[in-house]
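Cross-check.
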Amino acid sequence: MSSNNNSSMSACSGAGIPMNFKWRELLADTAAVANFEAKHSLPRAKLLLSALLGTFLFNIGASIFAIPTMVYPHYMISHVIVNETLCEAAALVWALCAVVCLFTDWLMLKHFWQLGPPLRHHATLGFCCTFVACIGWIGAATWNIHDYVVVHALMGALYGGGYTCRAAIHTWLIDPLRVQYGLPSNPACISLRRVAVLTELAAAPVLLAGLPTLLGKVNDNWSLQEQHLALMSSAVEHIVFVHLRLLCMATFLPDLALLDRAHAEGV
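Predicted model, tokenized:
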């Protein structure tokens, strides 16, 4: 009888050990998966892509919605958001996109910082320009062109100057070092950044030519030349300084995808 009891107890204990081990293994795997998902629930590349795509769709939709209420030739994106409802929406959408761009640029700075000089110095300077651009971007949405003309113009200058300097730094200082440091060097992205910077520099005089008219109040005494300059300035702003900029920002998606893969692999 005792031998039977001992054999049954040993059988139970033998059966219990694998069961406990399986539960511990299952819990450990579950915790590991949860930890991984917590760290990578907002992949960097998808976060930036969502912000840029959402801003692009908002700009297009807001422009279409505001056309009936806009006065010729005041067709800049700044005039689109003069509408009270659109102004509040733009302040939210543009601020979120600016924060996402600043956050993802900071992540790239952290990665570039580890690679040492001169890349570290170039990336730091580029991040400072991004910070200035984001302040101007959020400020331009906060102080509209109708009620705060001077402040809005200053914020626009910060946004435009900061963004152009940042793009130029990446184009002429960082992109030539990409192969050397093993960074994504997609020729299409590099070429698009270069074309975007040169296009902005070439289009800047056209934008500035129409600004005196666009920053002023509606005036029936404008000459035909002033109206045409303002119309061209508005078109250039929408095409080059709004949508092309968003497209240029998307060229950094390969860098963020590299960070996503590195973190996923635990590097």
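Residues 18 and 158 are 65 Å apart (CA to CA). Residues 1-19, 33-41 have pLDDT under 50 and may be disordered. Passed to J.P. for a second look.
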